[in-house]
From TrEMBL, chain A:
PANTHER family: BIOPOLYMER TRANSPORT PROTEIN EXBD-RELATED, EXBD MEMBRANE COMPONENT OF PMF-DRIVEN MACROMOLECULE IMPORT SYSTEM. The chain crosses the membrane at residues 21-42. This is Biopolymer transporter ExbD. It is found in: Cell membrane. Belongs to the ExbD/TolR family. Its main location: membrane. It holds the Pfam family ExbD. InterPro entries: ExbD. It is a single-pass membrane protein; Single-pass type II membrane protein. Keywords: Cell membrane, Membrane, Protein transport, Transmembrane, Transmembrane helix, Transport. The lineage of its organism: Bacteria, Pseudomonadati, Bacteroidota, Bacteroidia, Bacteroidales.
From TrEMBL, chain B:
This is Biopolymer transporter ExbD. InterPro entries: ExbD (IPR003400). It is found in: Cell membrane. It is a single-pass membrane protein; Single-pass type II membrane protein. Belongs to the ExbD/TolR family. Keywords: Cell membrane, Membrane, Protein transport, Transmembrane, Transmembrane helix, Transport. It holds the Pfam family ExbD. The keyword Membrane applies.
Length: 244, 233
């Protein structure tokens, strides 16, 4: 391959040049190429970061009040928190080995009535869940809660998804129709999710919560600041369910 | 007794094929590579199922270190009319002019400092410290930026709702928005122009300052940088 052989077609002429095999050693070339490859491999980013697009409500007060009035029956409030040790490092859940993110949630209006004046909320509707994801293809944890809340939309999208997988409809059509279903105002049980992050909640948990919105095809959600009622409810919850 | 003849074999291996392969690989890596951008802090972004990619052009990345230090990186158009360098050169001039309006201590930049700034990929020092910072050689600049406990490092982001007296982060963001490159403004309006990059363990409080400032600036749409994961995780 690397040598050039001069063929003489079997004839021998007088005074013909001496047959020479020109052999080029490619080993140094390969060495050099390998070095260059190593350099490029180490210096490149092959994976481009993904982005999650969100829009926050504007800071104007009027709009916020209107949003708060939005159907209370379908409202789900998520309050994110992350367990941290004394140094502020994120603790890990001993069961799952994942970072210990907690999601407090309640449906509708917060219950903070204390009729018997014992300093505890009588019928707190605050509950707690974790990010578990899917286990054996079944939704778990907070995903199950949100999944059940948005059932009608998810069922319709599942039908659409089946068509898309069978190549009956194109990619673009699938996206367009899924969007239409997500925003269909005729489906009355679409939830409105309000995501609030506590001061300790890690960035990961917020992204996780926004991610659940995407996975559960929830189109109406907003990020809000935590308020006194929320802190009161968490405080009450922790007093009733002391952590060990 | 006949001698057993051992045939002498050449141990030369033909490296041509190997060379061909390595050259091909090399070409592949050279063509596909985008170099790692130098960042003052390494952050691990959380993962999400979103599959939208980050745009290369007309994008402002806001990097938030776990300590709450903010760094900005601005990229311009692929077109040379509004190349990253030109956008950055204009940006620093607008920002400094804006800063001088509200501060008694004036900041003046030389032409050389501006051109040095335009080559910086990511910046994060107080405007008052900019001229001195830009005069430093590259290696020293990296050293300064890497020292996150230094109060001069990081763009100051405090809670400020009064846009007549903007904080430095607001000055920068407004300068980016109002730059003569119309594509930057369009990208911000679409929600692709601002990308927020923070470590997954960063407390929300720290990120909240930046989000709040963006809300005050009425830049309500932006993207959050994440890594990819599957739905089952």
């Amino acid at each position: 391959m690397a040598q050039i052989e001069q063929s003489d077609n079997g004839k021998k002429k007088k005074g013909a040049q001496k047959k020479m095999s020109i052999h080029v050693d490619f080993t140094p070339m390969v060495d050099m190429n390998m070095l260059l490859i190593t350099f490029f491999m180490l210096c490149t980013t092959m994976i481009k970061s993904q982005t999650l697009q969100i829009s926050l409500p504007s800071n104007e007060k009027v709009e916020q009040e209107q949003q708060n009035k939005a159907k209370e029956s379908q409202a789900v409030t998520l309050i994110l928190d992350t367990e941290r040790d004394a140094d502020g490092n994120v603790k890990f859940d001993p069961e799952t080995g994942k970072p210990a993110h907690l999601i407090y949630y309640y449906f509708g209006k917060p219950e903070i009535a204390d009729e018997d004046h014992d300093g505890r909320i009588d019928n707190s509707n605050l509950q707690v869940e974790k990010f578990v994801g899917n286990v054996n293809g079944e939704t778990q944890g907070i995903r199950k809660i949100l999944h059940d809340k948005n059932k009608t939309v998810l069922e319709k999208i599942a039908v659409l998804k089946a068509d898309w997988k069978d190549k009956k409809i194109s990619d673009d059509e699938y996206q367009a129709r899924a969007k239409q279903i997500r925003n269909d105002s005729l489906i009355t049980d679409r939830p409105v999710v309000i995501i609030k992050a506590g001061p300790n909640a890690s960035w990961e948990s917020l992204i996780g919560a926004l991610d659940e919105m995407q996975i559960n095809q929830i189109s109406r959600y907003q990020i809000d600041n935590i308020n006194d009622v929320d802190s009161l409810m968490i405080f009450d919850y922790l007093a009733k369910h002391p952590r060990n | 007794m006949g001698k057993v003849k051992i045939k002498k074999k050449s141990t030369l291996i033909d490296m041509t094929a190997m060379s061909d392969v390595t050259v091909l690989l090399l070409t592949f890596f050279m063509l596909t590579s985008t170099f790692l951008q130098k960042e003052p802090v390494t952050v691990m972004t959380p993962s999400s199922v979103s599959e939208i990619k980050v745009p290369f052009t007309n994008c402002t990345t806001v990097l938030i270190s776990p300590e709450g230090k903010v760094f900005l990186s601005v990229s311009g158009d692929a077109d040379s009319t509004f190349s990253s360098e030109k956008v950055r050169a204009e940006l620093i001039q607008t920002a400094v002019a804006e800063y001088n309006k509200t501060h008694s201590k004036q900041v003046q930049l030389t032409q050389e400092q501006v051109s040095k700034f335009s080559k910086l990929n990511m910046f994060g020092v107080r405007i008052a410290d900019l001229p001195a910072f830009l005069d430093l050689p590259q290696a020293k600049q990296d050293e300064v930026i890497a020292n996150l406990s230094d109060p001069a490092v990081g763009i100051p982001v405090d809670d400020n709702k009064d846009l007549t007296k903007p904080n430095e982060f607001q000055i920068w963001m407004r300068a980016i928005y109002n730059s003569s490159n119309p594509n930057l403004e369009a990208a911000i309006k679409k929600g692709e122009g601002i990308a927020i990059k923070a470590d997954k363990d960063t407390p929300y409080n720290t990120v909240h300052d930046v989000l709040d400032n963006l809300q005050t600036l009425k830049m309500n749409k932006f993207s959050l940088l994440t890594a990819l994961k599957t739905e089952n995780d």
